[in-house]
Amino acid sequence: RVAVVGAGVSGLAATKCCLDEGLEPTCFEQSQDIGGLWRYTEHIEAGRPSLYPSVISNTSKEMSAFSDFPFPEHFPVFLPNALFLDYLRLYTEHFSLREHMKFGTKVVSIRQRPDFATTGQWNVVTEAAGKQTSDVFDAVMVCSGNFSEPSLPLQCFPGIERFRGQYFHSRQYKHPDVFQGKRVLVVGMGNSGVDIAVEASRVAAKVTISTSRGSWLLSRVFDHGYPWDMVLNTRLMSLIKTNLPAPLSWWLLNYKANKWFNHENYGLQPEKSWLVREALLNDDLPSYILTGRITIKPGVKEFKDSSVLFHNCPEEEPIDIIVFCTGYSISFPFLEESVVRVENKHASLYKYVFPTHLQKPTLAVIGLIKPLGGIMPMVEMQARWVSRVFKGLCQLPSQSVMEKEVNEQKKNKVQWFGLTFDEVLKTEWLVYLDTLASFIGAKPSVLGLLFTDPWLALTIFFGPCSPYQFRLRGPGRWEGARQAILTQWDRVLKPTRTRVPAGSSSSFPSLLIVVGFLLLLAAVIFGF
């Protein structure tokens, strides 16, 4: 019996993967429906993520899909939150997950049983309709997310107590009406901060973004009009990024980012461009800066009654409203601190999943990772691995080996928009997926396929690393994986080629395959 905490993206994947392995999951969701972050509500619910109605996915549908359930081909390439929720509902119904869920049920506490050292079992106390219930579970998957507890470090902003205007955390934002005719300051430059600034600039008198470190900015529309992640997240690109000398790799990243526009000219150049950060995705910001709708300023030095003073800027700037886009804190109120240690806004977990010190590996955290790529394939792969660890089919290394890896990751902290995060931001999306896939025997063999299915091998290596690659072999193998890979560009073009004949297709993927075949053939010949 496995307790799954939360019915968002991670909880759905965890429930489904447990069922695939013959385990018995019970998914506890404190709200009345699935969806987590992707389920919009007009009012803010305590303990739940809150999003604004205009949110659109930053990763394309082909790179965001669960690995055995592609998005419908008529869905747009990047999805509004309502359509994303529709996809999650389709997934839930297709795999009959709802019958394993208990809605309106809050997890109050999760504690080790007295015989944990031998059984690995947990006492799980839940509350529904004012009544508490205690159950025993053999394992626990924590899928409660990390966008519910806003981080608002007001002590880091001198003079905020004197400010007479309005201020709030981005979690409270819903509609731009509040900014009508106002002078708005957005503090912090994450994806939400840029989205809110862009929306505010359409009705506000003036909008300023304050960022102490800048950021790389990508557009959803990338080279030749293709989705950014289908161009950047390929096995070839990953091979280049991970094997080039660091300075050369960073130069390549800088070149790609500045190919759209020169970040320095727009005040966005990262303070330390060699650091790996999660790039921002926004299609409008450069043009809004160019047309004067949005101004970029350095970090806040001090707030006054109705103005703000920035570092290295002698003049005060009048403001009426402040939106703090300062991220979120990680917490697990239902767990004892000794089970999952949270320090400096990150948890020390082996492969960002397992606590290293438990006598039995029967508790896992799913989704506590921030890659530059789709989160859904990652949480699904985590859940596939975890369910096999719970079942005893995969073994974890010794405690000392796991702790050594976690401590090495802690050595190099990354400063991200003024907040300190774990080395998790340096996790290469594909490298991480391949690592976990190799644990369960689901990593695709490009070289092996080259001799048995060369067309598929070349598509896998030179084309987008879509999640279906991890269903070609191993446990959970899906018969439709090959076809899904070979038709991925068709599903991308279907919702956009609405004026040209359906039979027409882009030559880009075909040319890529031809060139790729020649390169790979040369590499094999010279390799031998």
- CATH architecture of the largest domain, by name, is 3-Layer(bba) Sandwich
Mean pLDDT: 90
CATH class of the largest domain, named: Alpha Beta
Proportion of beta-strand residues:
15-25%
CATH homologous group name of the largest domain: FAD/NAD(P)-binding domain
What's the number of extended β-strand segments? Answer: 24
Distance between the termini: 51 Å
Shape: globular
Structural class: alpha/beta
Strand order of the largest sheet: 3-2-1-7-22
Q: What is the percent of helical residues?
A: 25-40%
CATH topology-level name of the largest domain: FAD/NAD(P)-binding domain
Number of helices: 17
Radius of gyration: 24 Å
Low-pLDDT runs: 413-426, 504-508
Largest sheet report:
5 strands, parallel
Q: Quickly count the domains.
A: 3
InterPro entries: FAD/NAD-bd_sf (IPR036188), Flavin_mOase (IPR000960), Flavin_mOase-like (IPR020946), Flavin_mOase_1 (IPR002253), FMO-like (IPR050346)
Main location: endoplasmic reticulum
Cofactor: FAD
Membrane topology: Single-pass membrane protein
Short description:
The protein is of the alpha/beta class and 528 residues long. It has 17 helices and 24 strands. The chain folds into 3 domains: 253 residues, 3-Layer(bba) Sandwich (FAD/NAD(P)-binding domain); 175 residues, 3-Layer(bba) Sandwich (FAD/NAD(P)-binding domain), CATH 3.50.50.60; 71 residues, no CATH class.
